[in-house]
DNA sequence: GTCTATACCCTGATAGAC
DNA sequence: GTCTATCAGGGTATAGAC
């Protein structure tokens, strides 16, 4: 389902040029943002020239869009594997091991609020979809009103916001915030006192 | 206290060139980020040439630093007026009226996690200071352990994170999230059931 | 499919006239 | 204090050889 997009997709297999370029773009956009990264840098990391890169992606903007779409496909595949669940605590645990991914996401989601940024629509839609998914999951698990008195829609927006904000703090100073623990804490507090399975493991 | 910095500060008064340039830089950095903004654009908005601008600020980096420092002074003055309190709910209420300010902050705080960004140190320090201030305020008002069982340090990191994350969502889609309401909700939930003065006003 | 060559514009910054 | 002139470099993108 997430596997076909264009007609034939030249070189999607591992080792394919297209994917190598997208990998390089991910690293470079993470390191410098979209505006701060040149096609030449991406190309060099992928092992070809800037003009060679433009054979696969006709413009810098197209490269960014392709990168974001690929991310969605990977996520969709992963979600399918674990049966459609959206376990935020698990997402956070994984993210701590992948600072690169976290950094592209953090940088691009903020950079894209600027005028005419090519990822504007992407992130607006993504936030909307994400809020809906998390809200639905909360509603299914805890009902239409959480014990804390908070609505599932509010809890969803707050959880997503906190995760993003914590990522920014964490990227600036990885030792300063314990993301998995804090997200766990917030979930516990939102979903009400001593509810939703095993609460905290450690005592403090 | 926050009023002197250099020796004499040429033209700090309203109408002063220096301040006009910083105002322009604020708007332009908000619209395009640091990397996405040229000195020429800032200069044009301020009503002089790029080279004229460089007479006041020797480099683009110096301009950014000056901008961030001025923001701190303004904040410090404002905080002094209301007697050192850090009322987050009030901050959010005000921010909704100033999308420009919110946008520079959001864009720059994320952009500055990139390699070699000139505002890295500024934001790392700012987050650290902010966490400390909010934690201290919570501790003074609610004690060393909140009724919810959450520590003041955790609550501080979460509140700041949620505010920043909500700003990003809000900038992408202003109608999608009610920032003041959501922050209020989070504060209530963190500080425990029906504590901390008047809880929610509306019923729903 | 990948390269060289190159067009064309924008960038931050310097030198120096007025 | 502000401008014109200018530099050296880098940006995206196109044309066309191989």
Structural overview:
2 copies of one chain form a homodimer. By secondary structure, chain A is mainly alpha-helical. The first copy, chain A, has 2 domains: 11-82, Orthogonal Bundle (Arc Repressor Mutant, subunit A), CATH 1.10.10; 85-196. Helix content of chain A is 64%, strand content 0%. The relative contact order of chain A is 0.09. The structure holds a DNA duplex (18 and 18 nucleotides).
The fraction of residues assigned to DSSP E strands of chain A is under 5%
Query: How much is the radius of gyration of chain A in Å?
Result: 19 Å
Task: Give the helix tally of chain A.
Answer: 9
Can you give the helix content of chain A as a percent range?
55-70%
Q: pLDDT below 50 for ≥5 consecutive residues: which ranges of chain A?
A: 2-8, 194-204
By oligomeric state, this entry counts as homodimer
What structural class do helix, strand and pairing data of chain A support?
Answer: mainly alpha
Number of domains of chain A: 2
**Principal-axes shape call of chain A:** elongated
CA distance, first residue to last residue of chain A: 44 Å
What's the SSE pattern of chain A? Answer: HHHHHHHHH
Overall pLDDT of chain A: 89
Largest interface: A-B, 49 and 49 residues
Number of strands of chain A: 0
Largest sheet of chain A: none
């Amino acid at each position: 389902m997430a596997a076909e997009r264009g007609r034939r997709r030249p070189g999607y297999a591992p080792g394919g040029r297209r994917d190598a370029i997208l990998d390089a773009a991910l690293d470079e956009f993470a390191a410098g943002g979209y505006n701060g990264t040149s096609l030449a840098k991406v190309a060099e990391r992928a092992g070809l020239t800037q003009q060679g890169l433009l054979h696969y992606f006709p413009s810098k903007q197209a490269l960014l869009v392709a990168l974001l779409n690929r991310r969605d496909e990977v996520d969709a595949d992963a979600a399918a594997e674990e049966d459609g669940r959206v376990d935020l605590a698990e997402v956070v645990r994984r993210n701590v091991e992948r600072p690169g991914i976290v950094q592209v996401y953090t940088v691009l989601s903020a950079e894209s609020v600027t005028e005419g940024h090519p990822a504007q629509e992407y992130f607006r839609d993504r936030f909307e979809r994400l809020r809906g998914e998390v809200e639905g999951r909360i509603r299914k698990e805890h009902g239409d009103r959480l014990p804390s008195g908070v609505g599932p829609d509010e809890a969803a927006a707050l959880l997503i916001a906190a995760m993003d904000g914590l990522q920014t703090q964490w990227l600036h100073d990885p030792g300063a915030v314990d993301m998995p623990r804090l997200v766990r804490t917030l979930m516990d507090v939102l979903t009400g006192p001593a509810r939703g399975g095993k609460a905290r493991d450690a005592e403090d």
